[in-house]
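Researcher: Before we compare anything, I want clean individual predictions. No alignment, no superposition, just each chain on its own. First chain goes here; please echo the sequence and then give the structure tokens.
Model: Echoing the first chain and its structure:
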Amino acid sequence: MARPSTVEQLPPDILDKLQELLRDPRVNQLDATARINAILAEQGHDKVSKSAVNRYAQRMAKVGQKLQEAREVSKMFIDRFGEDQTGEVGKLVNEMVRTLIFDITLKMQGEAIDPDMAPELAKMVKNLGDAMNKLEQAAAINSKREEEIRKRALEEAAETVDKIAKKGGMSKEGRNDIKAGLLGIKRG
């Protein structure tokens, strides 16, 4: 397995600064490299090369582009289905995550992935799997809550109908038939 790039080995605070510089449209890669190397020199660290910063910036640009595409697709589906995260949208998100994990796994097996990216992709697959598990648990909890709310609403409706029917003089047997019908209970 390939070792991490010199950029990825930077101390977290310096890597954050480099990422900030690379996102700033007013700063080119040469200036970003020079500024980071000045900070590294002050702290007694080895410098990073212009080519290492360039490779890192290109990888981050690809990741940024994929993220932007994912946001656009998500926005399209939210515009289509609304912001409700239950039901069809939740199923869609689960399917998208499953497809992404499958695609990454196939590419890793076919060695169509840059070996430098393999550790990051393995971490992403793990995180996606964890996120998928949490999404499915949340969907199950939401479904159970919806069922409980629906059941409570029907029980309250049945009690209200029972009271009104009782005031109207309906027999207990008739009221029980109505309640059973509302609650989906079969009566023998």
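Researcher: Okay. Second chain, same rules.
Model: Second chain and its structure:
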Amino acid sequence: MIDYIKSNFIREEKIKIQGIPAIIFRPIKVEEPIPTIIFYHGWSSNKELQRLRGFILSSVGYQVVIPDAIYHGERSRLNDYSWDMAKEYFWDVIFRNLDEFNIIVRELVSKYSADSKRIAVMGNSMGGFTAGGIFTHNKNVKTLVVFNGSCGWENFNNNIEKPIDKVLRERYDIIEKKVKDMDPMNYLNLLKNRPILLMHGDSDNVVPVKSQKDFYNKLNLLYEDNDKIKFVEYTNLNHFVTTNMMEESINWLGRYL
């Protein structure tokens, strides 16, 4: 955990939003209501491990909230975060994040002066899947930024080995149907002409870039203004968030949030 972030200009606070543990970063001198970013962490991560990113984003004038996802951080952590555990819990976490989003927004607006008309969602890896789903199914979210995730859920899921055990397979089939039903790729009409920034390493061996690239190529054809959708592919980059990605995000948010 990073414990050395200090600033006279940004207030950091641990909060609970209807029982959901989160960290909030807020510029001390800022005009209210405040443009607000909800940032979702990846599989096996937690809110504390994303603090530096929250601090960087807040330093340019945004309120940033980083919640712990279920089974992470302060919320019933798993014993391990192996690939087998990911296959069992990954989508449960994402769908729980989607269910909790409006709870978080309502409290940010009512208690923390968030501007309801200037909400952005961001996320890395699993958090990028989450952010993509939230943005798709919440038309009032102003912009989306995804690091190393996928908005082509079914496409990504097709590459996951299915369980052999009958009980696990039945459960997986239920999840697979929900993935298909909520997949952003199946709701391109809800996304066209809305500001979307996607960033991904071309050598990502955790979330292969192909499903995100396929999503971008299909959605991009629908845009009347192609400046509002951008896909940046980083050469020889594996599953990491880089300084360049953070800079690209800040530039994007400056235009669209």
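Researcher: What stands out in the second chain?
Model: The chain has a mean pLDDT of 93. Additionally, The chain has one domain: 10-256.
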